[in-house]
From TrEMBL:
Entry protein name: TetR/AcrR family transcriptional regulator
PANTHER family reported in the protein's UniProt record: HTH-TYPE TRANSCRIPTIONAL REGULATOR RUTR (PTHR30055), MYCOFACTOCIN BIOSYNTHESIS TRANSCRIPTIONAL REGULATOR MFTR-RELATED (PTHR30055:SF238)
Pfam families: TetR_C_24, TetR_N
Residue ranges occupied by any HTH tetR-type domain in the UniProt entry: 9-69
Record-linked InterPro entries: Homeodomain-like_sf (IPR009057), HTH-type_TetR-like_transc_reg (IPR050109), HTH_TetR (IPR001647), KstR2_TetR_C (IPR041490), Tet_transcr_reg_TetR-rel_C_sf (IPR036271)
DNA-binding region(s), residue ranges: 32-51
Keyword annotations from UniProtKB, A to Z: DNA-binding, Transcription, Transcription regulation
Amino acid sequence: MDSSSTRRQTTRRKLFEAAVTLIAEQGFSSTTVDEIAERAGVAKGTVYYNFASKNELFEELLRHGIELLATSLQEAADASADRGGTRVDALDAMIRAGLDFIARYPALTQLYVAELWRTNRAWQSTLMVVRERAITVVEGVLREAVAGGELSEDIDIPLTASALFGMVLVAALDWQSYQPHRSIDDVHASLSRLLQGRVSGHP
């Protein structure tokens, strides 16, 4: 990779980080390109050099963030398999990876969850695409678990994948907003018990 490509990637990363933080703090409509440029430490023209509009910046922000999340989930599942773990172990590893990601990028997660409930945005189709990208990773592991006899063939794979994904998002945001004193290990352990079906107290 040449130096110009490296510089552009660095600039785009700064813009992503600045945009997601500002938009999470004050909303998309209230955030200006000037503010994004100032927070990123670049000229306003640099924003438009990299992105045609604020809408395009936001769409790319969503794509970039969910791609990072999907990659971390897949890597966690693969690492679990390499250690000889079951597919349920892989799902548990993905839960931990999701918590780690949200702890690292809380503003992006808050923004993503907030936008899920809006229906009047120009990027609604993009939001559906990036959501599907993350859900598909979870679905893949669930299908393998069913095929291997670890999970019942009766489970609704798409709905179960959405439920697991949503559980991690909501639990992590609640943890960070209302129970920040709890450790990530503690939160992971609680979600792991849900995954393993041990909430009732029976083995």
